[in-house]
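Friendly challenge for the regulars: who can give me the structure tokens for this chain first? No prize, just bragging rights.
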Amino acid sequence: MECRRKSLPITGDAFAKFAEYGPLRMAEPVYYGEESKLKQTMIVDMHCHVLPGVDDGPETMEDSMLLLEEAVRQHVDAMIVTPHFHPARYQVYASQIQEGLARLNEEIQKAGLPITLLPGQECYFYSDLIRELDAGNVLTMAGTRYVLVEFDPGAIYSVLRGAVRSLMSSGYYPIIAHYERYQCLKGNTERLSQLRYDGAMLQMNFDTALARDGLFRKNPWRQLLREGYVDFLGSDTHGMDFRPPHIDSVVQWMRAEVEPGLTENILERNIRLLLNP
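First reply, four minutes later:
Bragging rights claimed.
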């Protein structure tokens, strides 16, 4: 199958990176029961906090397993676990993630849950982040050169753009986590396009698309999604009692309301390109 990204206005270095991949390596289609509106697709939650006891996600193994059981119920096939790395709050290092992931995978095998977990991290951008990435102390996404990066919600635009350029010049491909949170980007498609031109990709939380359009007020984030200003969706779940996943509901809305090619790009093609460099 030929790789096309006509629905995503990516140019510059980011477009060149995707062009390198060539044909997509598609897995066998997954079919769900008649009760679900989902069609042959693989759902990957690429932003989630499921490891127990490492950040502000689940506290216990039991909490993590409840969250994973719910993810499976919502037809999630794989998750990239992304514990926080924040120098002032959560200094979670790669070794802790690998150890926690090994223990959680043991429990998954015992329970027979049909889900795959991959290592990653949500990295707060600060002056030494690239040094930590280069040293292997902080993780990229599933062992690739992609980095899920977050900022202070009140960060000014020049900080975001400078971070994108620094990561790109160091050989990393930044994915801006839950970009809808940043005041400097709200309603500004020119800035979103500029960040993409510089090489960034944009991740929106699934829950952001849940708020329905009303008679007098529309959900602006749904419109941005429809217009293609989203490259990835992630739950950013922290447990069943803190931002539980609503992935199934959003996927069904997208299949009904969003252009099919764009839906496929966001839900499947982009994540396959990330995982198969």
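The chain has nine helices and ten strands. The two ends are 16 Å apart (CA to CA). Your move, everyone else.
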